[in-house]
Amino acid sequence: MPADPRIRSNGAMTTRSSSRRRQPERPRPPRRLDPEPPVAQVLRGDCLQIMATWPSGCIDHCIVDPPFNIGSGSGRKAKAGLGWAFSSHVTMEEGWDAFTADEFYEFNVRWLSEVSRLVKPNGNILVFGTYHNIYQLGFILQHVLKRRILNSVVWFKPNAQPNITARTLTESTEQIIWAVNETPAKATRWTFNYWHAKEMNGGKQMRNLWEFPVTAKRERSEGKHPSQKPLALIERAVQLASNPGELLLDPFGGAGTLAVAAAKHGRRWLLVESVAEYADIAERRIEAAG
Ligand SMILES: C[S@@+](CC[C@H](N)C(=O)[O-])C[C@H]1O[C@@H](n2cnc3c(N)ncnc32)[C@H](O)[C@@H]1O
User: Fold this and answer.
1) What are the chain's domains?
2) Whole-prediction pTM value?
């Protein structure tokens, strides 16, 4: 259970009703400590509660795209039309992505601590974010959990949405923190498929600037998720940072991109997703990818 009773572990902090708002499923409390986590499943519920039932060191690597805290109610003045946005400029209020500043920090500490407990020593932890959350996640990894950061990757979106406010630069990047699950003094022999990366990059060393267009419409054929990542981007992360047969976790599974990428490249996978509609999309995508 969350340490602070004011915080709901599923992040559903807003109180205004909206027929378009997606609310997480009510999590069931864990009953026992499972000897091993299940594999190749989209587990439905709150990842904090579900991860707490697994033993330490049972996951090889975690590639995770967590809530960014940009839903309305996230401590800033909520403005219709400026929340989560699809490429078609349709916006939605997402109950799971709206925290106050303190709640968001506590939430980030809690899930990153749990991931760090579950991933084997020297396993990889790749965390996606934008300026809304990436500095905080980096601080927690480096300063609170004392993990070694290996790289900071910038994902450049050449076809990013225009900035309709005309008040700031057009956001066209996301960041990926690549950390190894050890202290800087002890970090060693982490997985980096250097030669594969070079091969993927036409024989040249791969740089930390990755260019991929935003998620294509055809990748949304099983249903729309407001922050679904492009499959090719996640495939690259999977191929660089894990080996065939290893078990990859995404505790914020969304539309299941990590599972599709992992299965395509012979890795095992495990997702948690708290919104039933998104878990359904993920399962359909995984099945369609066969
Ligand atoms: C940024 S999205 C992930 C998108 C995913 N990478 C994809 O490509 O589809 C984050 C997801 O985490 C889910 N989520 C938020 N809080 C959660 C929690 N406490 N436990 C499990 N899932 C949660 C949201 O419903 C959302 O689908």
Assistant:
1) 42-289 (3.40.50.150)
2) 0.85
